[in-house]
Amino acid sequence: MSSELFAALKTGRLIGSRCKNCGRTHFPPARRCARCGGEMQLEEIPKRGVVLTFSEVYVSSPAFTPPYVVAIAQFGDFKVPGMAADKVEIGDEVEWEVADRHGNLWYFFRTVKHY
Amino acid sequence: MVLAYIVAAGMSKIGRREESSREIVAEAFEEVTTVVDPRDIEAVYVGVQSEVYEHQIMYGALVAEALGLLPREAYRVEACAAAGALALHTAVMAVKSGLVDVALAVGVEKMTAKPTEVVTDALMAASDIVDQLSGVTIPAHYAMVARRYMYLYGATEEDLCEVAVKNHKHALDNPKAHFKKAVSVEECLKSKPVATPLKLLDSAPISDGAAVAVVASERAARRYTDAPVKVLASTVATDTLSISQRDDIVWPTAVWEAAQRAYRQAGLAPSHIQVAEVHDAFTINEILMYEALGFAKRGEGYKLVREGQTYIGGKIPVNPSGGLKARGHPIGATGLAQIYELYLQLTGRAGRRNTGAEVAMAVNEGGVNSTAVVHILAI
């Protein structure tokens, strides 16, 4: 159901799914739970999350220009992989933002500044 | 229980090769023709990762043609870097089902003609669309596992490099290895970053190579040898393509699951395994394997390599061939290159690398531990 993710991005939302049976979440959204096979329902992913892990990438495919930072962040019950706009550390607060990438809408992470 | 047996195995020299995959497969196959009459082979299963490298699919028929095995049943199986062991699993199923008496498992990849960026892109096809669109390469996946593992359990970049040091040392005695060059922890720490914290010397190389194994029923095996290698277990398990969707990002559930099933199938426990070839595509993964296979407690795998217990001569020798890291990593061939090493080990043909082991385990995985294939072999 990546198609529903792309549709949600057009309205500035990031969505995943949650299993009606076991409560597990999935990103991108899926029709059935990967673990228990239960039906899933779409759910909006909270805006603010915390970095669980990250890497600075120096070797990539021709579609990307290293170096750049990728991370996995926890947004509520959802774990989401993505590219980060800035350097991050484990535990940093980030928000996802929708942006244009090569003519398509996609999302990336931006560090929340605490002043 | 009906068993399948490995009666012969072969492997090409691994490294940067000028030849095409059909020539490299033929080189590996020559080694088994001293034991098995090619006319006995009834089916061929070929593990290949990608059609990108040689702009080629149809590797089943291609290999049958190259080896003079037309018009046998022959087809490709694929699970990224687990393709080789998957070909063996398929051959074992064909033999155990009784459909054939002798099957050939083949793994091959010819990668080095393409630039690193193209190889990176071809491997990235093993990840979820959201990772692909976000630039999360396969090395970056392992890097994020490594970062989180170090954060949770206190392992260091030095510990990761110790895996590279060990495997390069083992490969010094492997005449077919890609690298026959010792490396130090310092050299590893100073090597160029690939995806932090992983560096060039934490990473398996891009290689060309092929490996084969002949699988036979008990009845057929007797024709070739009095001491065939028994396949005590052959299991496959799966996990999410994106590590982000796992309950625990660092835990290789598919490897653990496939190993648990393999121990049950064989009626054995981790303490019975005397030598192992495991999937060290990146150094962190060998450490995770120690834990998922039950050689170390969860979060303590790095201590095994710190204490030197996985060297040849240690408590549980791991990757005596040099592993993916130093023997080399021609993606589709790797699973059968592992089997080739264990065949040599169990039959006492590994020269200075001989461990004298009688029970061995191979763990081959694809993606980022998204497909795990485990074999337990014994003499």
Fold and architecture overview:
Chain A has 115 residues and is mainly beta. Chain A folds into two domains: 1-45, no CATH class; 46-115, OB fold (Dihydrolipoamide Acetyltransferase, E2P), CATH 2.40.50. In chain A, 8% of the residues lie in helices and 47% in strands. Chain A contains one helix and eight strands; from the N terminus they run H-E-E-E-E-E-E-E-E. Chain A has one helix spanning 2-10; strands at residues 15-19, 25-26, 40-44, 48-57, 68-75, 78-84, 93-101, 104-111. In chain A, a hairpin with a 2-residue loop joins strand 7 (93-101) and strand 8. Chain A is globular. Chain B has a domain at 4-113 and 206-224: Peroxisomal Thiolase, Chain A, domain 1 (3-Layer(aba) Sandwich). In chain B, helix 3 crosses helix 14 and helix 7 packs across helix 11. The mean pLDDT of chain B is 97. At the A-B interface, strand 4, strand 5 and strand 6 of A face helix 4, helix 5, helix 6 and strand 5 of B. Chain A: InterPro entries: ChsH2_Znr (IPR022002), NA-bd_OB-fold (IPR012340), Thioester_dehydratase-like (IPR052513). Chain A: Residues 6-39 form the ChsH2 rubredoxin-like zinc ribbon domain. Chain A: Pfam families: zf-ChsH2.
Mean pLDDT of chain A: 95
How would the global form of chain A be characterised?
Answer: globular
Distance between the termini of chain B: 16 Å
* Share of helical residues of chain B: 25-40%
Strand-pairing-aware structural class of chain B: alpha/beta
Uncertain segments of chain A: none
* Quaternary state of the chains: heterodimer
User: How many beta strands in the DSSP annotation of chain B?
Assistant: 11
Reported CATH architecture of the domain at 4-113 and 206-224 in chain B: 3-Layer(aba) Sandwich
InterPro entries (chain A): ChsH2_Znr (IPR022002), NA-bd_OB-fold (IPR012340), Thioester_dehydratase-like (IPR052513)
Protein name (chain A): Nucleic-acid-binding protein containing a Zn-ribbon
Domain ChsH2 rubredoxin-like zinc ribbon (chain A): 6-39
Pfam families (chain A): zf-ChsH2
